[in-house]
Amino acid sequence: MQPVNIDPLFDALGSTRSLEPLEAFYSLCVAFVLGLVLANVYRWTHQGFSYARSFLHTLVLATIVICIMIMAIGNNMARGLGILGAMAFVRFRTPIRDPRDIIFLFASLAIGISCGAQVFMIAILGMIFFCFAAIFLAWSPFASRREFEGLLRFMLPAGGRGIERLTEIAGQYCSSCEMVAMREAIQGEVLEYSYQVRLLDPSYKVDLVDAVAKIPDISEVSLIMQRTTVEI
């Protein structure tokens, strides 16, 4: 029976070559610069309401932290298991509501891993391609379905006849106009109407509101465009 060669297993669990100080510093600098670029692309393409300066700092610092961890682990399995066990005690309780923020955070982790492993070509090319895709999706109308849709609301006394005039005005400025809600207000003396409208052109917002406000008996006219409240 031939003896089992345990040298490869010992090498995997044992010590690994330590990086020179200049190599480690170069890896950290590349991770820091790429993290800054990624954070700026996130800031330029952000369109939501939950913007946080601390999240941009997290993107930059995460690349550095992951880079340090990968350089510390190297190809040593024992170090990797030890760091994995230590990280199991960490609990991140900050909620991330936007799935896009999670993708940017994963991108910063990927850049940190690449820099820590000194695969700089993959880190740079991956970061450039990711940023290009993020900018393209932010500035293009891709996946947009409600660019010119809005919610038109107004008050009309019970028994008023302004709905017929509203239909004529909607035909001039909207491609579609459907009532989505109607409720009583002021003890039943006034009815509040809500219409889902789709404008023919985004410049018609002011014209539509002005035209509806001129209808007799109609008051408190408002138009809320739903692109910023639904898609983002």
Question: What does this 3D model show about the protein?
Answer:
A 4-stranded antiparallel beta sheet has the order 2-3-1-4. It has helices at 7-13, 21-45, 53-73, 77-87, 99-116, 120-139, 162-173, 205-213, 227-231, and strands at 149-157, 174-185, 190-199, 219-225. The protein folds into 2 domains: 7-139, no CATH class; 149-231, ACT domain (Alpha-Beta Plaits). It contains 9 helices and 4 strands; from the N terminus they run ααααααβαββαβα.
Record the SSE blueprint.
Blueprint: H1 7-13, H2 21-45, H3 53-73, H4 77-87, H5 99-116, H6 120-139, E1 149-157, H7 162-173, E2 174-185, E3 190-199, H8 205-213, E4 219-225, H9 227-231
Antiparallel strand pairs: 1-3, 1-4, 2-3
Helix pairs in contact: 2-3, 2-5, 2-6, 3-5, 5-6, 7-8
> Ranges with pLDDT <50 over ≥5 residues?
228-232
Helix/strand structural class:
alpha+beta
State the share of residues found in helices, binned by percent: 55-70%
* Proportion in β-strands: 15-25%
Tell me the count of domains.
2
Strands across the major sheet, in which order?
2-3-1-4
Oligomer: single chain
Dominant shape: elongated
Round the Cα radius of gyration to an integer and report it.
Answer: 29 Å
Give the strand tally.
4
The string of secondary-structure elements, in order, is HHHHHHEHEEHEH
First-to-last CA distance: 67 Å
Output mean pLDDT: 78
